[in-house]
Design brief:
The chain is α/β, with parallel strands linked by helices and 203 residues long. The chain has a single domain, classed as Glutaredoxin. Helices cover 27% and strands 17% of the residues. It has a six-stranded mixed beta sheet, covered by helices on one side. The chain is globular and about 40 Å long. The N and C termini lie far apart (44 Å).
Length: 203
């Protein structure tokens, strides 16, 4: 049976949001920071199928920089982040950046048609390649497996040309904005831009 993801200590895991409020933690102590993954080889992915674009293995992208973002229906974090990643992809397409959107159904794994996934992507303005992680197998491999304290699933990973993880966003949203209510979103987006510039400049 798939690990209990709907109820955690009486809190419902909803659409990429944290299951329960937690006190702020230092990045090194925050299980959703994912800093321990930076510098490690990215795990091979095992997607259910590819919804848009040809089926590709992780090693097929060696020599390119890949930003992988898990997203789902009804996630307002995804509604704000995916358009920003679409714009980033357009700016850096000639620099061999690939933005891969990985759809996963919430609140629990289930089948979703390709037509529905493409419709949702169209609403969000995302035109990049899309894979479907129906049973959360690759999400478990990258993020959740062995980490029951992690409470987000709308996670992102920047993978360099050699297949090494260089930046992790442990869930939620990040995008350029001057709205003071989204200051953290802007800071984390700038952090991604800085790491991306560094990675793209590498041979």
């Amino acid at each position: 049976m798939i690990r209990q993801r709907v109820m955690v200590l009486g809190a419902v895991l909803l659409l990429g949001a944290p299951v329960a409020a937690k006190p702020p933690a230092a990045p090194s102590d925050d299980p959703d920071a994912g800093t321990e993954l930076i510098g490690r080889p990215a795990p091979a992915w095992i997607f259910t199928r590819w919804v848009r674009g040809p089926e590709r293995r992780l090693e097929d992208f060696l020599g390119k920089v890949v930003l992988v973002r898990w997203w789902t229906d009804g996630c307002h974090f995804c509604r704000t982040t995916l358009p920003a990643l679409e714009a980033m992809q357009e700016r850096h397409a000639k620099d061999s950046l690939v933005v891969l959107g990985v759809f996963h159904a919430k609140p629990e794994p289930r089948e979703v048609s390709d037509r529905r996934i493409l419709e949702l992507a169209g609403r969000l303005g995302f035109s990049g390649p899309i894979a479907f992680d129906r049973d959360w197998r690759t999400l478990d491999r990258y993020w959740l497996g062995g980490n029951p304290e992690r409470s987000w699933t709308s996670v992102s990973f920047l993978i360099d040309r050699e297949g090494v993880i260089r930046w992790v966003h442990g869930g939620g949203e990040y995008h350029p904005t001057e709205d003071p209510r989204h200051h953290r979103c802007a800071v984390q987006y700038r952090e991604l831009e800085n790491v991306l510039a560094e990675v793209l400049a590498e041979p």
